[in-house]
Amino acid sequence: MTYPIITAIAAGIIINLQMILMMICGKSRYKHAQGLGDNGQPELLARIRSHGNLAENAAIVLLVLGLLEMAGISQTIIAIAATSFVIGRFLHPIGLFKTTGASIPRAAGVATTGIVGMTGGLYLIYIALGKL
Fold first, then answer.
1. CA distances from 122 to 64, 65, 114, 119, 129 (A)
2. Which CATH number fits domain 5-130: 3.40.50.1970, 3.20.20.100, 1.10.10.10, 1.20.120.550?
3. CA-based nearest residue to 10, from 70, 74, 81
4. pLDDT tens string 76-104
């Protein structure tokens, strides 16, 4: 088994994005004097959700990518999946910060996360069943 280099790079980028979103959320909490919840503030809610949505999805998708990479899946496929995931994770908060309604960047972020996660998860099952 080799070190999952592509996944490590993606994880490094994602953790830095997570920390940036955490700071943006904290700044908005301070601005609105709101320690818990959003108190009906759309700006604060958007920042809370951008931070939370990344936290909810990033670890499991990165785990899937890392397992696929360690299983010997094509580096090109892993790079495409990881790049798509990272771009999608940047698009999601951009869409949330620009509007409280539906937006193309937000939808693209959700779609890429879903596609990479589900496709990767199904492929992990396929690989594992083949090793039984």
1. 10, 12, 12, 5, 11
2. 1.20.120.550
3. 81
4. 999 999 999 999 999 998 988 887 677 89
